[in-house]
Design goal:
Helices cover 76% and strands 0% of the residues. By secondary structure, it is mainly alpha-helical. Helix 6 (108-119) runs antiparallel to helix 7, helix 9 packs antiparallel against helix 10 and helix 9 runs parallel beside helix 11. The relative contact order is 0.05.
């Protein structure tokens, strides 16, 4: 039999699997989830070791994530998907979703290993910020703040005005504060607030800017900022404690010792 004949026969053998897969996508589009699952499984049974099977397993994993809130089963389907998707954007997408679910399931080491492999490939531009953002989050949760900063800065450089980019700029300021670079944090957070004044991260960014300003010797500016956001900050108890602490700091710095007072005992008067 010639090569053309072999191709025709192979095509005929796969056609029913393709038909099931297409019907599965159509059912999914109409939110007929049970029919979609049935069709995707039928496609896999007819073509178990193929790129089509990889795509069908991926669709099953997405359904687990989006409609069943079942990341464990999604992980199983994504892994089966990757057994059949050898390269290209579809494999990158399945790998990224697998890493995301592994991070949710408290398996950060496995997730980070997958992300590292992705970062060393010719990533589709649309996936780059997701890979870097998730890598940064994993490192941040592990207390590796310097390493997390590297990835957050990659996100900022690649896509500063996206939601991920705004969050990365905000996170950069917070981590700089944690690492003791209060001056750098103040500059970063000031720039962030100026560029995105209505960002959902705004109140927390302003609170952390106030912390930075206080640490670099500007407690009155810090207090003004805290008072301005006290009604919008998500944790009123925290901000009220901080306001009281900065007020006490200002009062302590403003006290002058009485002529006959012992400075060691804190004697003095307010100006």
């Amino acid at each position: 039999m010639g090569a053309l004949g072999v191709l025709v026969l192979a095509g005929c053998h796969r056609d029913p699997a393709i038909a099931h897969f297409e019907r599965g996508k159509e059912a999914l589009g109409h939110m007929d989830l049970q029919s979609a699952r049935t069709e995707f499984h039928a496609a896999i049974r007819l073509s178990p070791s193929s790129r089509l099977a990889g795509q069908a397993f991926y669709q099953l994993g997405r359904m687990d994530d989006l409609y069943n809130n079942d990341p464990q089963n999604a992980v199983r389907n994504y892994m089966k998907s990757l057994e059949n998707l050898k390269d290209g954007p579809a494999r990158q997408r399945a790998s990224l979703d697998l890493a995301t679910d592994l991070e949710h399931l408290k398996e950060p080491d496995q997730a980070f290993a997958i992300l590292g492999k992705l970062d060393n490939t010719d990533l589709v531009p649309a996936y780059r910020t997701r890979v870097w953002d998730l890598s940064a989050r994993i490192l941040e949760h592990d207390g590796q703040y310097k390493e997390a900063l590297v990835y957050y800065r990659k996100v900022v450089a690649a896509d500063p005005d996206s939601f991920e980019g705004q969050k990365a700029q905000f996170k950069t300021g917070l981590l700089m504060n944690i690492l003791g670079d209060s001056e750098g944090a103040a500059k970063t957070l000031t720039a962030f607030i100026g560029q995105y004044p209505r960002s959902p991260f705004g109140p927390v960014a302003r609170f952390n800017l106030a912390l930075s300003l206080d640490r670099i010797g500007h407690p009155r500016r810090a207090l003004d900022l805290l008072l301005a956001i006290q009604n919008s900050y998500p944790n009123p108890e925290v901000i009220q404690r901080r306001i009281m602490a900065v007020k006490m700091e200002i009062q302590e710095k403003g006290r002058k010792p009485l002529p006959a007072a012992d400075p060691a005992k804190g004697g003095g008067t307010k100006p």
